Amino acid sequence: MPHIFIDGQKIEAKDGQTIIEAAYENGLQIPHFCWHPELSVSGNCRMCLVEVGLPKRLPDGKFAKDEDGNDIVNYFPKLQIACATKVADGMRVRRQQNKVVEAQEAVMEFILINHPLDCPICDEAGQCKLQEYAFDHSNGHSRFEETKNHKDKRQKWGPNVMFDAERCISCSRCIRFSKEVANQDVLTFVQRGDHVTIELFEDTQLDNPYSMNVIDICPVGALTSPDFRFKARVWDMSFNDSICGTDASGTNIKIGVRNNKILRLEPRTNMHVNKYWMSDKARLDYEWINENRVTEPILNGQKVEWIDAQKAVSQAMKKYKSDEIMILTSGRTTNEDTYILKKFAQKYSIRNLFALSHVEAEIQDQMLNTKERVPNLNGLKEFGVDIADNVTEILKSGKIKMLFLVEEDFQHNTHLYDTLEKLDMLIVSSYNHSKLTEKANIVLPASTFAEIEGTFTNNKNRVQHFEPALVTKENASRMGMKMSRLDKMGAHNDRWTKHEQRNSKQCWRVLQSIANLDGANWQYKSSEDIFDEIAQSFSSFKHMDYQKLDLHQGLVLGQGDKPEKIVNRYQSHVMKPN
Question: Strand order of the sheet with strand 454-457?
């Protein structure tokens, strides 16, 4: 493998790599706008200019040395773009020479000539690559005194993407992503010089299932989301790492929160799962977490305390024979929840423990959209929970007197509503109010994936850990450092502190409390306690723990002792808030 030197630091590169690829793989930054590791090289921003030299070679191929024994290096007379220049053994790269700094300042001055001062109203402000580089790589002075060139603003490219041509710096990332990743070649440059802009081909729109990723990779505020537009400033929000809870892909995400409400979801890099991308469907599927939530336990139509609801469930479990009780769950429960649910069913000798599948076959594709619309179906299978297809017949038979729905809402199984008439007792653990909660004798408010800690096993059997991003009464004591500064520091009379604090609980905590009322004496204090027990009890989870899952961004079932190599993850926007 070739060795190169960047500012005197020797690093090992791979054959065929470019300078910028080798630098980022070794944790070194080179400023850039247009380059992206998953897109082809365009080389049009010129921000990554560096000084490049090669050792002088003798006729026998060896490097020539000076009298001190150092390589004699011949530097190219002109600067080279790091995104397109391939590495060679012994290559020297300088990032901080005066001529490099002057070139970067000139590029920044050129880019800012026609860029509008929209920062006070721009959604990208606070996480903008142009702001970042204006601070780090600009001299802060412009010689341009003429009127700025104005272009069309608020252009709707598609249902989920808005374009502001004035802010565009012509990096072409959106054009290349649409063509090379999303396979929808509908964008192109038109005009020349300072009149250049991006347009859609005639009679087309940017409406592919991954269109909103162009917003993430846009280095400026030219592309914005109509869903998030003008909702909040990013420095007033918290961004916590999580795993997508609405499909089986295991997409790594960041949850953006203000006033204890999710304002947006965005992808988080994991090269083993979703790389840098996220589907539009998963990105926009969060309103059910904010709205119409069950916030208190309900017993026969009346709000009650948790202990009263748990006692009522305990009494119901003892009232009916085990073969008269059915528990239905879904792949929305975590591995920890599922493990305790299985123990719960075994304690009460319940054999009728099933899960329902949630399938939308028409949206499945070759990237991240899965037909299964729950995050942990493979986790359920690993713990031996059957995905049943005969639930309708069992319920219609009249043998089942009590039905316990654990985070199952019949969303993709509406035909089961008609089977509820034969029940004596319906207990529902639910996120949202629905027909089921109206009909239920007992309603237990459940916490969503955004409010709990646990693990999901995705459709490729990768186990991934996530933590809460929203505050509930249950997790409030651990959420201080995860909250936005407004939510954490607001006064009692501030409008952003009036958010709803839900009295919901994670599934395993509810089941443990009910079982302990009947003498179980389970003593789990956290989800991590349960996962450690799972790792000891199931060979497929052996050698796994939360710290190892976080370090390697997940581990594959049965391969806990064979983690993938840890690599430096590319970050497009270094100053982006976490």
Answer: 454-457, 462-466, 555-556
* Selection from 151, 120, 124 nearest residue 217 by Cα: 124
* Rounded alpha-carbon distances, angstroms, from residue 200 to 178, 197, 280, 485: 11, 10, 19, 40
Report the amino acid identity of residue 93: V
Whole-number Å distance between alpha carbons of 177 and 199: 15
SS3 26: coil
- Cβ neighbours, 10 Å, residue 424: 13
Sign of CA dihedral 456, 457, 462, 463: positive
The residue assigned the tokens 């059997």 is 461
Cβ(430)–Cβ(294) below 8 Å: yes
Distance, CA of 198 to CA of 118 (rounded, Å)? 19
| Contacts of 456 by beta carbon, 8 Å cutoff, 6+ apart | 243, 245, 250, 334, 335, 375, 376, 379, 449, 463, 464, 466
Collapsing DSSP to helix, strand or coil, 22 comes out as helix
pLDDT digits (tens, 9 = 90+) for 229-278: 999 999 999 999 999 999 999 999 999 999 999 999 999 999 999 999 99
Closest CA relative to residue 494, chosen from 504, 486, 503 = 486
Q: Please state, as a whole number, how many other Cβ atoms lie within 10 Å of the Cβ of residue 351.
A: 12
Geometric angle at alpha carbon 216, from 212 and 218, rounded to 5°: 105
Let me know: does 182 contact 136? Beta carbons within 8 Å: no
Secondary-structure breakdown of the chain: helix, strand, coil percentages, each rounded to the nearest 5 = 30, 20, 50
Query: pLDDT, tens digit, for every residue of 77-120?
Result: 999 999 999 999 999 999 999 999 999 999 999 999 999 989 99
Q: Which helix (H) or strand (E) holds 280?
A: helix 280-284
By the 10 Å C-beta count (0-12 exposed, 13-18 middle, 19+ buried), 61 is classed as exposed
Show the tokens assigned to 491.
């006064």
Looking only at the bridges linking them, the beta strands covering 238-243 and 223-224 are: unpaired
The answer, as to whether pTM is greater than 0.90, is yes
pLDDT at residue 574, as a whole number: 65
**pLDDT exceeding 90 applies to what percent of the chain?**
80
| pLDDT tens-digit readout, 533-565 | 999 999 999 999 999 999 999 999 999 999 998
554 CA to centre of own chain? 14
Ranges of the chain with pLDDT below 70: 574-578
Cα(327)–Cα(344) distance, integer angstroms: 10
**Of 335, 194, 270, the residue nearest 569 (C-alpha):** 270
**Torsion of Cα atoms, 506 then 512 then 513 then 518, to 10°:** 160
Tokens (6 digits) for 288: 């059910």
Please give the Cα distance from 121 to 109 (Å, whole number): 22
* pLDDT value at residue 265: 97
What pLDDT is stored for residue 498 in this prediction?
74
Predicted confidence at residue 575, as pLDDT, reads 61
